[in-house]
Structures are given as structure tokens and as C-alpha cells.
Design a protein that fits this description.
Blueprint (H helix, E strand, L loop, with lengths): L2 E14 L5 E15 L4 E5 L6 H8 L7 E6 L2 E2 L5 H8 L2 E4 L13 H12 L4 H14 L16 H13 L5 E5 L7 H18 L2 E6 L2 H7 L2 E6 L2 E7 H6 L4 H10 L31 H5 L5 E3 L3 E3 L8
Parallel strand pairs: 3-8, 3-9, 6-7, 7-8
Antiparallel strand pairs: 1-2, 1-4, 4-5, 9-10, 10-12, 11-12
Helix pairs in contact: 3-4, 3-5, 4-5
């Protein structure tokens, strides 16, 4: 496997006591496991604040997990020397949500795209410029764009530049953190089609993070649904979208299709997560057992899993 996350947890201190010792935490990610193989597209979906972006940052080494393991090519990254970690990080790139903030406004596109090659010592210096020109062509931009600054491009074009920068390192996998959420619908379609083409032609794997179930469903082969830091349902994308089993997944699908949503309210404060099933305060099917017992993922590892003991009766 290119990427394996094993029971990854990430806590952030929100309150400190005597001597600055943390006394309260937010469980941004709570015991999440997933795998991404070569050429695979795995989607993560959930409301804002559910921990999906934090999980993506743990996956590429931007955050160190509080507990659990992150493996790149079956190697635990905590055990890697700095030089080994840097070599592996080249294979695992990230494209961030905001194309307006992810590019240095003081640098021309030529500098932005050449920099990863220089940092990682890729290609000969005489070959790099031609390689960068080829990257721009792959994402639908031209050689003339090398001399421009980021502010001279539209949002969709900036996101294409961000993707070209990630591809400059010739990665095996890219974490896409809400890559189209700030774009118009028509521009979203063009970027999604570009991502699909690059996956088919280059074999690049994606960990695709989004709050939009339809967007994730368009690209991904396997889907994880997160709520309040934990996975509440996972499985093959087609099956999850066709027959969702968790009440939260059902509600997300209904909302994405413009239908009536059966849940109300906002997600609870992650620093004060409800006891038992964390979804029970918003679930119309909640019973006493839901309020008392923490839900475990049930089901077949290869097909689907759901964190709801009533799934077969809903």
C-alpha cells in the first residue's frame, strides 16, 4: 500500500492548567484507519469541522498523530530519518483548498514550479524548464503563463497551477483538500475532469477530501464518511451512495440531492463530545443504547463498515 493509516488519533489542547499542562483536548481525529493503493482514489466526506482536513495533514506528515501509525510504502514515518522522510515526502503531495492563499503572490509561476525540482534535486538544471512547460500543458495552461504572477489568474487556473506544482515532484499520491469547493460549478467540472484524466494517464493515487458527497462520488472508488473526528461509514463509493446505512450518510446524500434532510442542528462541540454515539443528539432514530454505548464500526473490511447497531433496521 502507498498509504496506510492505522487507528490514527489527533488531539489539540484547548485549555491549559498549572505549568501550562493541557487539561482539555479536541479530538480532531479519533481512531481512523484507511488504506490507499497505487492508482486508487479514496474519498473522505463530512461537514466542516469533522476532522477530514486534519486527517489529510496527518497522512502527508504535516501533523504528527497523537497516537496510531502512518505508513508510507509500508514504512512507519515516525521511524524514518530526516533524509528518508524528505525522500518519501516527495512522493506524497498535497493540494490545498484555497487557490488564492496556497501560491506565493511575490513569485512568478516559473519560480513556483521550478522550486520543488530544485529542493528535491530532480532532473538536470538544463532539463527543468522544459519539464515545467510540459506540466503547464498537462493542466491546460501555456508557456506564456510562466512569466505571470498568481493574481493574474482566475481561481480555477490557480488551482491548476497548484496541481502542477504538486505534480512537479512526480508523486505517487496527492492529498486533495477541498480542491474545488471555492470554484464555480462549471470550473469545478473542468478541474474534476482534469484530475480524472491525470489519474488514468499517470496512475496518481488521490486521497480526496470534500464536504460535497456528489463531488467525492464522481471521482472516488472507496468512500469514508466522517462525523466528529471518527468514521461512521465506509465502503465502495457506488454501494455507499446507492444504499447508505448510517443515518448521517443518509442525511448527507439527501442534502446533496436537494431533498428534505431528517437531522437538525449543528455538530456538537468536539471538545465536549456526547457520550455514546456522538451522532445521537441529532439522530431521529436514537434510543437509550445509542446514548450509553460508543458505536463501533461493524461489517466486512473489504466491502463496507458502519458505526450504527441499528443499520439493518433503518
Amino acid at each position: 500500500m502507498l498509504l496506510s493509516l492505522r487507528k490514527v488519533t489527533k488531539h489539540f489542547p484547548v485549555q491549559r492548567g498549572l505549568w501550562g499542562r493541557p487539561t482539555a483536548f479536541v479530538k480532531a481525529v479519533d481512531m481512523v484507519s484507511l488504506e490507499v493503493g497505487a492508482g486508487q482514489i479514496v474519498g473522505i466526506v463530512g461537514e466542516s469541522g469533522c476532522g477530514k482536513s486534519t486527517l489529510g495533514r496527518c497522512a502527508v506528515g504535516l501533523f504528527e498523530p497523537t497516537s496510531g501509525e502512518v505508513l508510507w510504502d509500508n514504512l512507519e514515518i515516525r521511524g524514518l530519518a530526516a533524509s528518508q522522510k524528505r525522500a518519501h515526502q516527495r512522493k506524497f503531495q498535497v493540494v490545498f483548498q484555497n487557490p488564492y492563499a496556497s501560491l506565493n503572490p511575490r513569485q512568478k509561476i516559473k519560480k513556483i514550479l521550478l522550486e520543488p525540482l530544485e529542493v528535491h534535486g530532480l532532473l538536470r538544471p538544463t532539463e527543468r524548464l522544459e519539464f515545467v512547460k510540459g506540466l503547464l500543458a498537462q493542466v491546460g495552461l501555456t508557456e506564456e503563463d510562466l512569466s505571470k504572477y498568481p493574481h493574474e489568474f482566475s481561481g480555477g487556473q490557480r488551482q491548476r497551477i497548484g496541481l502542477a506544482r504538486a505534480m512537479a515532484c512526480q508523486p505517487d499520491m496527492i492529498v486533495l483538500d477541498e480542491p474545488v469547493s471555492s470554484l464555480d460549478v462549471s470550473v469545478q467540472a473542468s478541474v474534476l475532469n482534469l484530475l480524472s484524466r491525470l489519474n488514468q494517464e499517470k496512475g496518481i493515487a488521490y486521497l480526496f477530501i470534500s464536504h460535497d458527497l456528489q463531488v467525492v462520488g464522481y471521482l472516488s472508488q472507496r468512500l469514508l464518511v466522517m462525523y466528529l473526528g471518527a468514521v461512521v461509514e465506509s465502503g465502495k463509493t457506488e454501494e455507499v451512495l446507492r444504499t447508505p446505512r448510517h443515518p448521517y450518510t443518509k442525511a448527507l446524500l439527501a442534502a446533496s440531492q436537494g431533498r428534505w434532510v431528517m437531522i437538525e442542528g449543528e455538530p456538537p462541540n468536539p471538545a465536549k463530545a456526547p457520550w455514546g454515539c456522538t451522532f445521537h443528539p441529532r439522530c431521529p432514530f436514537a434510543e437509550d443504547r445509542c446514548r450509553q454505548e460508543k458505536q463501533q464500526l461493524l461489517g466486512d473490511d473489504n466491502a463496507w463498515k458502519v458505526a450504527c447497531w441499528k443499520w439493518d433496521r433503518l
